[in-house]
User: Fold these one by one.
Assistant:
Number 1:
Amino acid sequence: MVSFAASNVVLFVVFLVSLLHINTDARRLSESDQTEQPLLFQYHNGPLLTGKISVNLIWYGKFKPSQRAIVSDFVASVTSSKPTVAEPSVSTWWKATEKYYQLSKKPSSLALSLGTQILDENYSLGKSLTNQQIIELASKGAQKNAINVVLTSADVAVGGFCSSRCGTHGSGLGTSNGQIKGKSSKFAYIWVGNSETQCPGQCAWPFHQPIYGPQNPPLVAPNNDVGLDGMVINLASLLAGTATNPFGNGYYQGPKLAPLEAASACPGIYGKGAYPGYAGDLPVDATTGASYNAHGVNGRKYLLPALFDPSTSTCSTLA
C-alpha cells in the first residue's frame, strides 16, 4: 500500500516562519528554492483519475451535523454548475486542475461528485490511529471510481499529525474486487484531521495565529469553525493532489516520496500579494467579517489555496 503526499500547513508554519506546507513526510523547501528556481512540473506517465468519481466521506469520531455540512457542501461545490452560485466559485477553483489533464499524453476529464457518507462515532479503532488504520478506515468506502476521505475529529491522534502533517493522500490495495485482469486494484484515499484543539497554529492557519513567525491577527473563518474551515483548506489541497497525482506517478515536481503537487507547490498563498504570515488580499464578508475567496453551494463561502498553473508555471489564486 502506498502513502505519499501531503501534510498541509504545519511545516512551513514551524520551519519557514508561517508559510504552509502539505507535502508527504515533511518535505522542506527553502524560500530561495521558490523564488530563484522555476517549478518545473513533470508528468511521470502514471494514470490519473478519470471519468465520474465519487468522493465518499468517512467521519471518524464526533462531528456535529453542522460541521459535516461544511465539508459535504464543499465537495458538492467542486463540480456544481448552479447559476445561483456567485463568482469566484469553488467549481472555478477546481477547473484549474483540468489543465493537468489537457497536458497529458491522452487528454481526459474528471467529474467529481459527493458520494456516500459513513459515520464511525464510536471510535471503532480507538483514539490513536496509525497510517495503516487510516487506510483500513478508508477501505470502508467504495473502492471503484471513488476517492475515500477519512476525517478524524479533534480528539483523535494520528501518527505524524501536527508534528509533520495535517493530512495526507495516497492509495491502498482494493480488498473487495480482488484481482482485475491480473493486477491488484487500487483505490485513492485522503485523510484530514481536525486540528482545532491539537495544533490550530500549525494546521488551521490563517484562522489561528501561527506558533512561530509574524503574528498577524488571524482571519475570521468563513463558516465560523476554525477546525472545520481549516480542514476544508487541507482537504482542498489534498483533493487537487489526488486528482493530479493519485498513485505517486502523475504530475509532481521533486522526489517521489516528497513531491510538490498542484497545491503544495503554492504554500500559504490564498490571494494576490501573499507573503509569509500574510494570506493575501481577500474579500471580507460585510456581515460576519470572515475572509474567503470562493463561493459554494447553499450560500457557503470558503478559503481555498492557490493552485500551481502548469501552463504558466505560477501559482494561480481566485482573489
Number 2:
Amino acid sequence: MAAIWRSRHSRKFLQSSPSLSSSLSPFFPLSNPNPIPKPNPNPTSSPIKSFERTYFDYQFSRENLSCFSRENFKFGQCGSICRFGAGISTSSSGVAEKDDEDRGRDDGGGERPKVQDLSWIDLYLPKQARPYARLARLDKPIGTWLLAWPCMWSITLAANPGHFPDIKMLALFGTGALLLRGAGCTINDLLDQDIDPKVERTKLRPIASGILTPFQGLSFLGFQLLLGLGILLQLNNDSRILGASSLLLVFSYPLMKRLTFWPQAYLGLTFNWGALLGWSAVRGSLDPAIVFPLYISGVCWTLVYDTIYAHQDKEDDLKVGVKSTALRFGDSTKEWLSGFGIACISSLALSGFNADLAGWPYYVALMAASGHLTWQIWTVDLSCRADCNRKFVSNKWFGAILFGGILLGKLSS
C-alpha cells in the first residue's frame, strides 16, 4: 500500500510541472505523455519553479564559470565540490577531468580547457591570442617569479647603503623576466614537440596538441626576443654583452634532459643569470665576492625546487627516455636536497656578509628562508604530484622573504 501511495503522489507531483515532467520523460515515461497542467494558485511559491530558476535555467557558460574561484578546484583540496566540478567541461566532448590529486598540472595549452584550467586568459583574452599566452605560460606566473627573484636580490644588494634599490631597474628586470621566461617556454615546446604529447602533464600544450604550428611558435619566439632586446638595449654595454650571452643557456637548456641526469643544475645556471646581470646593470662591473656566492646560492636553490618539480614526471620520463635529478637521486632525494639547501643558505650568508649587510633584518630573513626550505624538503610527498607542485609553487615566498631581508638589511646599513 505504501508503494502504491508513493507512486500516485509522485505521479501527481511530476504532472504538476510540465517542464520537469518533459525533461524526465525519456527516462521515466508517464502513462499520460501530454498531461494538461493544472493552474498553480501560488506560482511564486512553487518549489519546482524555484528550483528551475536556480538550476535548470542556469547556463554553465564560460562567463558564468568565472564566478567559481580557481582556488576552490585546486588539487582536490575542496572535497566533494572538486569532484563535482571535475565532471564539468567547456569542451564539446564533455569528458570529465581526471582527479587533480593524481596529477600536478602545468599545462601550457589546450584552447578549450576544462573547468580546473580556466584562468584570466580564457576569460579576458581574444580567442586568437589564448594559445600564444598559454605558450608563454602567462597563466603560470611562478616561472617568472623564480626568474625575477635573483635579479631583484642582486639589484637590491648593489644599491647604496641606506637607499632603496633603483626602481627603474627593478621594473626593467621584472619585465625582462616575463619576456625571457616566455621565450624559454616557447623554445622548450618547440624542441620538445616530439616528447610533450607522450607526457600527461604536457600533452595539451599548444604546439604538442596542434593548436599552434611550429612556424607560429617560431614567429612568436622572434616577437618575444625582439621585445627582450628592447629591454637589454637600455642597460650599459657590459650588461648587454652579459645579457646576450645568457641566450646560449636559454636555447640549450631544453636539450639537457636528453644528455644528462643533471638538467636541473643547467636550469639553475640559466635561471639565476640575473644574479650576475642585476649587479652589473647597477654598478657597471662585477664584484666576484658578492655576486658569485649569490649565483651559486641560486643554482642550489633551483636544484631543490626543480628536483621536487621533476618528481611529477618521473614515470613519464622513464617511458620516453629523458633524464632528471629526480630519477638520479631516487629514494635519496631528500638527503641530496638537504645538502643543496645547506649550500644555498651558506652561500647567501657569505654574499650578504661580503656586501656588508651587517644589520639583523637580513639574517632574520635568512633564518626564515632556511625554515621555509627545510619545510619544503622534509614535508613534500614525492609520490604525490599535487604536493610536489604545491611545494614548487611555494618557492615564490622563499624569494620574497629573502628580498625583504636584503632590502631591510640594506636600508639599515
